[in-house]
């Protein structure tokens, strides 16, 4: 067998082994204080305060003179001084971010409702997703069977109906069972992406850009 090929195979195997163990954390608590702990993670010392997460993804939940409670990958464990634990750790999956830029001061985005395409206007002042009657009919929503309510709009009080949307998607963010309202008329001309959807997201502003990200 070719020596160069064997050397390449050894390198590949060693690399694969390193990858397979890249998520193993060796954790030992070496110092305890009120609401602080010195934690050695894979031979690197970190001074953690309550609520602070290390670069390795370990968060200090609480600490006193007797023990520290650490959280990693959604798992919480209690560590006493000098306790060493080696554990496999899978970092949390990075949530998809949908970034929007304003047009004439408004944030609009293409999305879908129950698999049908819908153009949305992002409206943090709307308590729920709002659709007009024409859009609701296109989405095959039998909205007239929903609870009838009066809704205050810019043009006065209008009749609206409560509906549940099986699926609402914007970019790669998909949410299920979202409450919405259908206004029995031509308004709003563009569907409003209101707080029944947005309240389940983290909304961040960076200059003019708006980033939408699922909370969990």
Question: Which second-level CATH architecture of the largest domain applies?
Answer: Beta Barrel
What's the pLDDT, averaged over the residues?
A: 83
Distance between the termini: 52 Å
The CATH topology of the largest domain turns out to be Cathepsin D, subunit A, domain 1
Estimated share of beta-strand residues = over 45%
Helix content: 10-25%
Element layout with pairings:
Blueprint: H1 3-20, E1 24-33, E2 36-41, E3 44-49, E4 58-63, E5 67-72, E6 75-80, E7 84-88, E8 97-100, E9 108-113, E10 116-122, E11 129-132, H2 133-138, E12 148-153, E13 156-170, E14 173-183, E15 191-193, H3 195-198, E16 201-206, E17 209-214
Parallel strand pairs: 10-15, 11-14
Antiparallel strand pairs: 1-2, 1-7, 2-3, 4-5, 5-6, 8-17, 9-10, 9-13, 12-13, 13-14, 16-17
Compact description:
With 216 residues, this protein is mainly beta. It is built from three helices and 17 strands.
Description:
Mean pLDDT is 83; it is low at 1-22. The two termini are 52 Å apart. The protein folds into two domains: 3-88, SH3 type barrels; 97-214, Acid Proteases (Cathepsin D, subunit A, domain 1, Beta Barrel), CATH 2.40.70.10. The protein is elongated, with a radius of gyration of 26 Å. The chain is built from three helices and 17 strands. Strands 9, 10, 11, 12, 13, 14 and 15 form a seven-stranded mixed β-sheet that branches. It has helices at 3-20, 133-138, 195-198; strands spanning 24-33, 36-41, 44-49, 58-63, 67-72, 75-80, 84-88, 97-100, 108-113, 116-122, 129-132, 148-153, 156-170, 173-183, 191-193, 201-206, 209-214. Strand 2 (36-41) and strand 3 form a beta hairpin. It is mainly beta and 216 residues long. Helices cover 13% and strands 52% of the residues.
